[in-house]
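hey m, so remember when u said the tokens were messed up on ur end? i reran from scratch. heres the input so u can diff it against urs
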Amino acid sequence: MNHQRATLSQLGEFDEVVDVRTPLEYAEDHMPGAINAPVLSNEERVIVGTLYKASPFDATRVGAAMAARNIAMHLDTTFADRPRNWRPLIYCWRGGKRSGAMTAMFNMIGWRARQLEGGYKRYRHSVIETLSALPGQFRFVVLAGPTGSGKTRLLHALGQAGAQTLDLEDLAAHRGSLLGALPSRGQPAQKAFDTSLVQQLRRFDAAQPVFVEAESRRIGAITLPIALVERLHGAPCVVVEVARDERVSLLLEEYGHLLDDRDYFREQLLKLTPLHGRERVASWCQLLDEDRRAALSEALVTQHYDPAYTRSTRKHFAALAHAPHFTFHPMSADPVEEARVLLAQLRGDMAPGTC
């Protein structure tokens, strides 16, 4: 029934996108804006898959009965209010039986439903293709500086001042360092991160620069696409400089939740033993036990974060040696006003058209 199939290029022709995969598949990643109406539940998919190994015919018969019941339930609930002229695009893993069953039923009812050719698998392939090409269309400006220099605050302030910004740490739900896990958000799956990144990149105006923090290839468990990493490594940089006392205060504010969970913080510190040795890590743990927060923050700044910055950032970002420096006051001044100052400075310091 090729007339009931559609391609990704036809996405704009439809009123709604329906993902009929299991809730677990949907949670890992899905097409932007798609709703989840599973034809098989998580448990049912396991049952059918196990049965298929013994008898494909029996698996298909049992799966069809499950799918029919689930589609009927969705018709009575999720889709009960859809108008007669509703046009849904339906997809499963690779455009097979699950989406085919719902598409056939919807067309029998009278809706102009179409099945996505190739399913989610084809969509995922398009995301990978896009991430290999799209970063090359933009001019990035990289905010460099060691942990605690307020790069994220400056990035947000630049956005409020009207600049285009790409917050990779927000998309990855992680601050990037060993202690960077967020207390209120788990990291997304890699596929979901990639989908969000494509959406964000497509919103940018290629005629204007995009500000972004200096990042390594990995942000927690997330891996950045190589095309983006290479683009950032060759981009012009701004070195963000912050007074030591403000850096210590900023780290205390941003990582204070870790100090309230000493057992977890200790576990993270102990992971640094191969890099710093038992004696130094033991001294940090002692500061933690004594609740000497400012002293621990300053020790991590001077003994861990600054050397790590020197080893990593200066090695990978080619333009850093000749980059302009910007003194930022994240704890004592209006970040948005300072962002406006930086934008004005860049218009004079960088090549025409850069900012």
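this time it looks ok to me. The first helix runs from residue 23 to 28. if urs says something different then somethings off w ur setup not the seq
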